Amino acid sequence: MPPTQRFKIEAPKSLASQVAQRLREAIIDGEFALGAMIPEESLATSFGVSRTPVREALNLLQLAGLVVIRPQRGSYVFEPSEADITAICEFRCLLEPRAAELAYQNARDAAAAALQLAIDEMEEARAARDAVRYGRADTRLHEAFFEYCGNPYMQAAYATAATKIAALRTHLSAPADVLHTAGFEQHSQLLALFRAGDFVKFEKLMRAHVTGTRNSYVASLKTRTAA
pTM for this structure? Predict the structure, then answer.
C-alpha cells in the first residue's frame, strides 16, 4: 500500500450539506407543502446555525429542482406545472425500462431482491395507511433499476430528477396509492415480468404505470389549484 493511502480520512459533511439533507427529506416526505415558503430565519434557529448554511443549503436544493429562490421574496418549495409533470413522466418512460433491462443483465438476483423488499414495505405501509412510508418504498423500487443497471451515465441522468420524482410521488400520488390497489398491483406485475426477463411486456406495463401516475399527478394538481 502506498504510504499516502494510510492518511485518507472521510471529510465531515459541511453544515450546509447537513441542512440540505434534512430539508430534502422534509420536502420529499411532505413536511413542507408544494409551493410553500421556506422560512430561513426560523430554520436557522431550529438547526442552531447561522442563516449562511441555510442559504447555501437552499441553493443546493434549487440545483436539484426542489426549491425556487425568488430574489427579494424568499425561498419556496417547487410547484410543478402540468407541462413539467408530463416532461418528467416522458423522461421516466424512456429511461426506466432500459435501466430495468440492464439491471436484469447486470445483477438480476440482487435487483429482484431489492424490488421484492420494496414491495413488501409498500404492502406493510398500505396496511398501516402510511402514505409517507409507502412513497419511500415506491421510490426505492424505481430507483433499484438504476442502482443495479451498471451504467453510470444512466444513473447520473436519473439523479438529475430523482429527488423531484420522489417529492411528486409523496405529495401527489402516495396518499391515493396507499388506499387503492391498482398501482400496488402494477408494481408486483413489474417484478414478475422482470424475473421472467420479458422486457417487451415490462416496457408496455411500465409506460402504462407511469402514464397513470402522470394522470394522477395532473388530477391532484388541478384539485390543489381549485382549492
Answer: 0.84
